[in-house]
Amino acid sequence: MKLNYNKMLRITNPSQFILMSVLTSAFLAGMVFPLFSLFIKAFQDSGGSFVGLSNYVNYFSQPALFYSILNTLNVSLTTSVVSTILGFAYAYALKRTNIKFKGFFRYAALFPIFVPTVVHGIGLILLFGRQGILTQLGLEIELYGRIGIILAGIIYTFPQAFLMFYVTLHYADGRLYEAADSMGCNALTKFLRITVPEVKYTLVYSLFVCFTLAFTDFGAPKVVGGGYNVLATDLFKQVAGQFNFNMGAVVSTILLFPAILTFVADRILIAKNYSEISAKAVELKVNKNSLRDGLFFAVCFLVVAFFLIFIGALVVNAFMRFFPFERCFTLEHFRFGRAFGGMQSFVNSISMSLLTAVFGTIFVFIYTYLIEKGKGMNPLKKLGRLLSVTPIALPGMVIGLSFIFFFNSSSNPLNFIYGTVIILVLANIVYFYAVPYATASGALKKLDKEFESIAESMRIPSWKILSKVSAPLSLPAILEIFMYYFVNAMVTVSAVVFLYSADFKVASIAITHMAGAGNFAQASAMGLLILIVNLIIRSMYELYLYGIKKQADKKGADLPDD
Amino acid sequence: MKRTILLYVLSALLLIGSLGGLAGCGQRQAAADPTKGEITVYTALEDELVTEYLAAFNQKYPDIKVNIVRESTGVITARLLAEKGNPQADLVWGLAASSLMVLDNQEMLQPYAPVGVERILPKFRSAKPVPTWVGITAWETAFVVNTVEAQRLGLPEITSYQDLLKPEFKGHIVMPNPVSSGTGFLTVTGLLQLKGKDTEKGWEYLDQLHENISHYVHSGSKPARMAAAGETVVGISFGYAGIRQKRLGAPVKIIFPEEGSGWDMEANALMKKNEIKPAAKTFLDWAISDEAMNLYKANYPIISTGKGGSYEGFTFNPVDQLIDNDLSWAAENRDNILSKWMQRYDAKTAPR
């Protein structure tokens, strides 16, 4: 009987199986059960009795919905295509060309994710609003509405697309290009036949990720959306306007569709994704080509120029008394009143983000390792993949509400985490899970399967391979994941707004309050401080990497050059 | 060796758990002494006002630690409703009466008559024998106009709702969406009542106004902010939102429409839960005391005892500005009004 059971679950390595089960259960408790406690409301009336699909019938009979869905598709598609193309071009420039200032460009690309999305909205208004700097220069666009949402969406998703391509393009097998050169292939052929297949997986994944992020994003529509209704504003109106959790749950379930599509795409792609780096791969040498370099430099320059103007606008706003009507210099906006949580909220943000980054990275990497490299356990692996991509379709508000319904119930044994920093950390880990998963999975897929087979034949335990081979080889990806978690936890609003407790406020919430109080100047000032902290943390990690590289160079070891 | 790593993982998980357990303790001691203890207060009052008022409270009651959660009206109400099964807040301070009515209907409020409740005018507190909520201040529809922009575009002066219909204002007015904003809702219900609440006149006015609106936003103070920043010329908002922008240095003028303003109360309530702390009642008593009212009226001149102040730079009595508002009519017809509004104006925001 026991044997049959083992066969059914395809267990070949019991310790891996136990670990996998523990992590899967953690995921169930941290995401699936809470979501269930919210989604069940889609099939109930306000009194809690079962009503079948009548809430859906009710919702779909509203004419506004038709427009909301069309609008949401419209902005999400545009955003994902533009972000993916830009992200790819930018990463390609940094990894496969000889342009100058690569280090600077790499930092600059991440500017947008170093500040809360509220600040994106403020920045866009400062640039393109009626009093905007660019508007005054004659560049007039109708910001409030579709264009505003798309612009904010691109700013928000571009860094994510860039990061995915950056990691993927890092791993290249120079031998392929050498072989192509010796066969006399031209640049286009090499690009289409080697590079594109190499990044095919990331390309599609990036499209889906950006699409889903834009599909569920609420920050941009709220600040610059004007009267352009999207599903996320529908959700807000149902929950925080009508206090109708049942309808809110209906919209939440509709927002899940892209996640299901992403999962299907992930499954289809994985069957066709052969491009892995063999253990024998050699480093790619980028040959000279000044036309190509010039072109890609222009792309990077334009993107960065836009971001710099953006940051510049914030600086101007933070240091001027009342932009644009009173343009005298002042430092008063940096004197944060106790009203907004003062300095303590800033310290709280940093500790919450560190906890999120440490525990999030450990969890993501081990779980993804088991999914990608574990022996057997196919049913659990499939479940794991589904669980890992789902969070991307969850608006922060959905996570916040479902955490309240699940963890605040006094009959829940995990009730003790409610109102503590742990629930904030958990919410962050879940909310931002999908991109770290993609990063880890992309990096691990590139590692040769031979490592595991050799290890097995030599009877080396798999944890040793993980800690001595896979983890060090994936170090750039691991550190990316750490950084991703840290900076996102620093800036997130929607995931924690329902969950932070009275004695633990965070800086991103403080910014929302400042902006809400009409104090854009103080919000910009706090935004700049968060940007600086994120930059400092980022440079510390660069220095650390630099140290490792130097050490490796001394030993002559062949570590990733990142 | 395999077991060791598993052991590490498990002990790490255990550690997280026990740390969490520790963090949860220390909040449980209930003090029988009403001037001691720790209370959690949910509020929608503005941040800077909360700080100011709390300092006064703690001067009088230094041994009561007040933990504040402040969010916008919609978010804090949603959070209270979602926490219904196990309420975290001990009391609610300064939340829209229309929101408290929703909580009251779900039997989440504990009736409590704070000391001095008889001073509160009947229309500013719940009608129950032992009131479930007690109002402190009122806020009302006001227009916030950016004077620099209005002059640049050569727009005429505004004094009334009727003036907003002038063709010159087309595309220059921003208004809160009544579906997601309390200020939007009180403005719409105020207008409907002004024009005769059971006639179509109000809707005819809104139809015409809709032609001039540039867009609707999801917050009541945002139109004032947008007017201050020059993102719109006229923002339909509320009095204090405009006053605050003016204090920050914005070139704005606040206009109270001559027909009168729709309004809502900011009110306090005790949450129904197993353990009701004496300190919570102390806070509620203080929150309607003369001391507190004097603090409120410096910012919100309309207070529930009726003896209020006036707006900075205005000489009229703000109470006269309020229309004869039927709050319970608005609450009863809320769903109908909002769905009619959505059908007429929200669905029109088609893709361009």
Summarize the structure.
The complex is a heterodimer of chains A (562) and B (352). Chain A has helices spanning 2-9, 14-39, 54-60, 63-96, 102-109, 117-128, 133-136, 146-170, 174-182, 187-216, 219-224, 231-241, 245-255, 257-272, 290-319, 342-373, 378-389, 396-407, 421-431, 434-446, 450-457, 462-473, 475-491, 507-516, 520-555; strands spanning 320-322, 326-329.
Structural overview:
The complex is a heterodimer of chains A (562) and B (352). Chain A has helices spanning 2-9, 14-39, 54-60, 63-96, 102-109, 117-128, 133-136, 146-170, 174-182, 187-216, 219-224, 231-241, 245-255, 257-272, 290-319, 342-373, 378-389, 396-407, 421-431, 434-446, 450-457, 462-473, 475-491, 507-516, 520-555, and strands spanning 320-322, 326-329. Chain A is mainly α and 562 residues long. Chain A has a single domain (13-555), classed as MetI-like fold. In chain A, strands 1-2 form a two-stranded antiparallel ribbon. In chain A, helix 6 packs across helix 8, helix 10 runs antiparallel to helix 14 and helix 16 runs parallel beside helix 20. Chain A is globular and about 65 Å long. The termini of chain A are far apart. The model of chain A is unreliable at 557-562 (pLDDT under 50). Chain B folds into 2 domains: 30-138 and 264-314, D-Maltodextrin-Binding Protein, domain 2 (3-Layer(aba) Sandwich), CATH 3.40.190; 140-263 and 320-346, Periplasmic binding protein-like II (D-Maltodextrin-Binding Protein, domain 2). Helices cover 41% and strands 18% of the residues of chain B. Chain B has helices at residues 2-24, 47-60, 73-82, 97-105, 147-152, 182-194, 201-212, 222-228, 239-248, 278-287, 290-297, 318-321, 327-332, 334-346, and strands at 37-43, 64-70, 91-96, 109-110, 133-146, 173-176, 213-217, 234-238, 252-255, 263-271. In chain B, strands 1, 2, 3, 4, 5, 6, 7, 8, 9 and 10 form a 10-stranded mixed beta sheet that branches. In chain B, helix 2 links the parallel strand 1 (37-43) and strand 2 (64-70). The longest helix of chain B has 23 residues, at 2-24. Chain B is globular and about 65 Å long. Chain B starts with a helix and ends in a 6-residue tail after the last helix. The model of chain B is unreliable at 17-31 and 348-352 (pLDDT under 50). Classes of the chains: A mainly alpha (562), B alpha/beta (352). Chains A and B meet through helix 2, helix 4, helix 12 and helix 18 of A and helix 1, helix 2, strand 2, helix 3 and strand 7 of B.
